[in-house]
Amino acid sequence: MRPLVLVITERCDLTADRVIDRLRARGIATARVDYGDFPARAVMSARLHEERWCGELVADGLSLRIDEVTAAYYRKPSRVRPAAPPSGAARGGAVPGGGAAEYAEEFAAIETRHGFVGVIEALDCRWLNHPAAIRAAEWKPSQLRTAHRAGLAVPRTLITNDPEEGRRFVRSIGGSAVYKTMAAHTYQGSADGPQTVYATVVSAEDIDDSVSGAAHLFQEPVVKRSEARITVVGHQVFGTEIIARSEAARADWRSDYGRLDYRPIEVPSSVRSGLLRTTASYGLSFCSADFALTEAGEWVFLDLNPNGQWAWLEAVSPDDGCGPVTAAIADLLARC
Q1: Closest Cα partner for 207 from 172, 171, 157, 163?
Q2: DSSP single-letter state for residue 83
Q3: What SUPFAM superfamilies does the record tag this protein with (predicted)?
């Protein structure tokens, strides 16, 4: 069977574009689809034939047989957007409130997600990564436990909504801790738009009763010389050292990209094997992981992103316009 790679992402995704360009330069057929195309700009009919879903997908100028997809690259699809309230058999008692308008759109969105998206995510092909594996690996409590079991160094960590327990923990580790969010997300913090919560050093006195309103993660600070972003593709490991040149960047390098320097770094074999054991436990073919590097040369695991960004770190080769991570991803997807 000739390779056919399905790239599942939003319409504007420069990182996915790099991989698509690489695959097409090698003569590999690719098709791009966004969940947000369903159902207004996409039509799919799928039948279960023996153990496989078979049928045709038509979306945004492409037409393909879903049973001919050999690999799927899951990146950043947008959410499904119902085009109209459901009709026919879905009307009446099947829709809460007898098909009332306030429920119809929600009903259509759920049916679309479980139908169209469900079929795509049930395709029997190579995935990088399957959405179910991504969802399982996104939970930070699980990441930290799994990394520790795999032999990686992990900072002492407390998750709590008890302010007094938080204060006790901070005092027990020397009087300061790093507060971090447990998921990569934004919040509507002001009229300026969505805000990102960056890692913050806190003292016991900074922890007040508002902690009781939500789960909080407090972690032992790591005295670091720098940090490292590791990108895993299959069994290949690519390391980049990140050197912060400002106080803000030293606390959380995402807060000050303009004051960062990058250089390639060799990943120690013990860290490499521990990280590969961690990714294997989740069934991941790809991830990015962040480590703190101490002056003594210790690599301390901070977190893992099963669908992380990597293109901004990649040094583009002047020979073929393709960096090593792009090439590794394309190679993995192109295998039949």
Answers
A1: 163
A2: -
A3: Glutathione synthetase ATP-binding domain-like (SSF56059)
Distances (CA, A) of 245 to 87, 241, 251, 256, 261: 59, 13, 11, 9, 8
Enumerate domains of the chain plus CATH numbers: 4-129 (3.40.50), 156-219 (3.30.1490), 223-306 (3.30.470.20)
- List C-alpha distances in Å: 317 to 57, 78, 262, 263: 35, 31, 16, 15
Per the listing, tokens 């499904």 go with 80
Rounded Cα gap, residues 131 and 128, in angstroms: 9
Rounded to two decimals, the pTM is 0.89
- β-strands 157-160, 236-244 pairing: unpaired
DSSP code of 37? G
Residue 116 corresponds to which tokens in the numbers above? 């169209």
**How far apart are alpha carbons 106 and 196 in whole angstroms?**
28
